[in-house]
Structure formats: structure tokens, C-alpha cells
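for ur thesis appendix - D-alanyl-D-alanine carboxypeptidase/D-alanyl-D-alanine-endopeptidase. copy paste whatever u need, i formatted it the way the template wanted (i think)
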Amino acid sequence: MQKIIVLTLLAFAGISCTTSQKLSNKKPYARLLDTSQVFAQNFTGMAIYDVDQKKTLFERNADRYFTPASNTKLFTYYACIKTLGDSIPALRYVIKDDSLIFWGTGDPTLFHHDLKNTSAFDFLKSYKRSKLFFFADGNFTNTAMGEGWAWDDFNDYYSAEISPMPMYGNIVRVSIDKGEFSPQPGIFENSFYKKDEGTTITRVQTDNLFLLPKSMLTKNNYKQDIPYKTSIGLTQQLLIDTLRRNVNLLHIPVSKDAKTIYSMASEDVYRLMMQESDNMLAEHLLLLCGANLKDSLNSSFVIKSITEKYLQDLPDAPKWVDGSGLSRYNLFTPRSIVKLLEKLRADVPQQKLYSILPVGGQSGTLKNGYKNTDKPFIFAKTGSLSGVYNLSGYLITKKGKTLIVSFMNNNFNQSTTKVRKEVEKILTWIYENQ
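the 3d part is after this line
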């Protein structure tokens, strides 16, 4: 009996030593998290993977699900890499007798305020006026707003609606300078009504009526982006207004013999989506994937297709519901995001990948942070909602190691700025010491 007890104790001691040894290797990362007062009451998850050693260095709640916010755009980008080519498909079309019938692809670049692409417009404008024009929307089966989006965000620029042929980014850009008031597109000029009170322009929730506080007319160099309410009828009006010709409507699926017109380089659109965390671009890029896969503009269809074909090897099955991360229904684990980033690194040349992502101290949502080092070391996507701040991407240490990091923080009741700065502090320590 004594012998059994002694052997048991020795075995336990051996296990304890092994466990302690493993823990000691992880102590620096664990200590950084455990001693942080900023993270004391929130839910934090972290996964660190060494690319060269192909080894997981640290995990904390890495198998737990988090609301990813705009980290979701990493999944959308991956879907695009697997589905789209070097150029964005602008529209699909057929010519039948004296008629030109065309379908949207979800291409978000047409007259986009920050991309200013006119390829689809130039193509349509080039056809003789004798042709009858028909815009068809039979390939669009999506909703105008994503599943799980907050309804009261409808007036905010980041909640632009989803449509088969978006124009102007599906927003009205209002400029006010020295008393001059100018909305773009101009078709909305008579849709603004002046009111006495208020400090910002608001849209009526159910219609394209905009309320403009009179006090704002004294502002200089002021700009505000407000989503307009999309509809097939409004798309028709915008096409008529820009093409200066009649455009009819059809509700038919894309013809099997339809041809494709392309707009601009895909990489330029990906870069703006990732660096500025543009939700409208993300949602419509996901639709574009559907247009390429099956002439189907439907986010759920694309997500299901990409997940089944390419993401079965993730450690934890993702709950992925939209392209942008606006939905709180999205749920990913840190270790699954690390795996996705590893897959992206295998598919995209390193320098191109790093140029598309926000760069610490240089570009996008990381431009104003990570400036206390001699060179950029973090190339990553951030994601934030109320009570949510995440960062996932690639960290190049001072010694030249490449680490993939997913650092997720949910359920905090303090300023996002505090959490963001604490994340920066810890990642900078890893850069300096690993």
C-alpha cells in the first residue's frame, strides 16, 4: 500500500513539474494579462502563434467565443481572396435585339466618394440612345440591413444599406462651407428640410427625408455622410439621373450568356476596406463573391459556401453572419482567427498582405498608435463596438520573429481608449522582449 502511495506521489510530482515547466514558459504573457487593472473586469482572450516554429506560444481563453466586431473583415477578405480575381466585376449584361439588360454584382465602387470609379457608368453611357435599357435585380435576395445590426444606427455612415448596384457608397455626402450647402448625389438636394434645433443632420428612419439644423449652415469645411434608404426604385432614379436617359426595371435572374464588365483593381478596394474598416465595402465585397460563385447576391449563401469549402479545418466552428462585423451575432474564437491568419499568409504574398492591413504608427485604424518603436511591427485588423475591442494580425518582434496574434476583449464597461492603449502596451512588450 505504501509503495502505491509513494509511486502515486512521485507520478503526481512529475506531472506537477511538467505542468509548472509549461506554465513557466507562458508566465510572461500570463503575468501581463493577470496584473493588468484594465482587464480586471472584462473578458479577455489571446492566442499567440510562432510562424517559423509552427508552434503555439500562448493561449488564454483561446477556445472561447468572442464578438469579433470588425475582425470579421478578415473572414470577408479571405472569402474575396478565394473567390475574386485581380479586378472587381462591375456588372453583368446581355444585349437582346434593341435592348441592353444589366444586373448589379454588388460592386461598391460606382461613384464611391473615396474611390471615384465610373467604369460601369462609362460602359452604359457608351451605348447608343436607340437601345432600350433595363436594370434587373433578380439576382439580389439579400436584406438591406444585416442580420443582428442595431436598428438605431441607420443614420450613421457605418450602417450604409446593402443593395445590388450601390451608387455613391449608398450614402449622401453633405458639404457645408461658408453658407453653401451641397449634397452629393444632387438628386437629394430637395430632400433636406431645415429645422430650428439640433446639432447634426438626421434622416427620417423610414424615408429619404433629411432634417438639417439651421445652425449648421454657418459651419465651414463641414462634411457628414448619411446612409440613404435604398430601393430598386431609387436605383432606377439614380441611373436615370446620371445616364440622362430612361432606364426600365425587370425582375429576372442573370442570363446564362451574360457577359461581365470590370471596374477597378480588387487590391485597392480591399485596402480601403481593411485600413478604414469600411463596412459598406465589406458587405458588398461579400455580395461580389456570391456574384462570382453563382450569380447570387446573398451574404448567407457566400458565408455557407466559403465555410464549407475552406474553413472546415478551423479549431472552432465560426458563427459568421455578415461581411463587416456590425452584427453581434458573429462569434469567433482567438485560435480560429489565428488559423485564418495563417491561411491568409499562405495565400497572399507577405508584402502585399502587410500593405493591405492597417500598420501600427502608419496607416488606417492603427495610424495613431504604436509610435514608440524604431520601425513598424504590427500589421493587424482592429474591431470595436460598445464594450468590444479586438486586434488580430501579424507582429514582427525586435529579433525578427513573426508571430500571429489574436487579442480579444469583450464585455468591458470603460472607455475603449483605455483598453486599446493597454493592448498596445502589451503588444509592444512582446515586440521588445520576444
